[in-house]
Design brief:
The chain has helices at 3-14, 21-52, 59-70. It is an all-alpha fold and 74 residues long.
Length: 74
């Protein structure tokens, strides 16, 4: 682990947001897995829409727009 990341983890634990670095890392992993599940769901919906002729936009364009929506950029 890099020093800045380790320092950030220590700060989070010291602020009593988490009881240990392990708890924090597990929470971050859960969040990443949930985010990946959302992306996988969107990809599946895009593929289904493309196959049905629902849209003429490319998969990459729709995925980009969906990610921007998830991150509040649109």
């Amino acid at each position: 682990m890099t020093s800045p990341n380790d320092e950030w983890l220590n700060t989070q634990v010291k602020s009593e947001e988490y009881s240990s670095k392990s708890e924090l890392v597990n929470d971050l992993i859960r969040q990443a897995r949930q985010q990946q599940a959302q992306v996988d769901y969107i990809k599946a919906k895009i593929e289904k829409a493309e196959e049905s002729g629902f849209t003429k936009d490319s998969k990459s364009k729709i995925l980009k727009q969906s990610k921007e929506l998830l991150h509040g950029k649109l």
